[in-house]
Amino acid sequence: MRNSPLFPYILILTAGVLWGGTFSLALIATADGTHPMALTTWQVILSTLLFGLVCLVSKVPVFSFRRLHYYVVIAVIGIVAPDLLYYFAAPHLNAGILSVTISTVPLFTCAIMWAMRYEPLMLKRTFGILLGMVAILLLVLPDQGLSSEDANLWILLVVLCAVFYAIETVYISEGIAQDLDIRELLCGSNIVAVIFLIPATSWMGVGVPVSWVFSSAGMAISTIALISTVAYLIFFYTIKTAGPVFASQCSYVVTISGVLWGMVIFSEVHSIWLWLSVAVMMAGLALVTPAKRRVRELAERPI
Questions:
Q1: pLDDT > 50? residue 150
Q2: Domain limits of the chain?
Q3: For 175, what's the count of Cα atoms within 13 Å in the CB-facing half-sphere?
């Protein structure tokens, strides 16, 4: 199964559907007015515990000082910065728009990869990504007014998150030592993030008591942490085996599932343009194929 050409697609579909639900959960988490710094802190604390458990069960190192520079980079660009921006923006946008903005990750990823000459410019892959962007336009423009300056500002903040995720994607693929286990990387990065966030949250005076975790917002954050733990493991494995540009197509799946989750949980209403967007999105995804060399290595690499 692991050496099947379909395996990378199964990976991004699974991670995408899981991640898509986090946008609706973010709306639930921010509904009671809890400060974004507190939300981010609790999510990272819970994620650290989960990744630590994964490492202990798998007998993988939890933290290594010689890997500290890797942890710091991922903690900043992949955890703290994007989480804060999302929680600041979430109360001002709906789940559909939050999920739609993630589609810009492949565009930024390709731009970085081509600029750094890590990936060749391939017409088929480029056309697939462009179709994905067209699908997003079909989804957003006919359905959403978004005429207020405030809405545009919050959307720009979420798009900035996509930039951070694109940088993280490229860094995981090209900047991380090949012998560094993904589970160790995620655990160590979350530990670094916790070390920064707890004092910062306390200094700002925006912390919440432990009992808050059992509130509806706290349960939403706990679920986000659990989903993110599973989805990150799947996603980073995809980066290592199928390449960062292909792995970034997970964003398209996240977008569609995020819109659908919003419709189910919050009864968000969309027109026929949404279903046209789905069709174009899937066509774009089908045109993006993983590098053959990396597919052959699927059965040879550990997670």
A1: yes
A2: 7-296
A3: 17
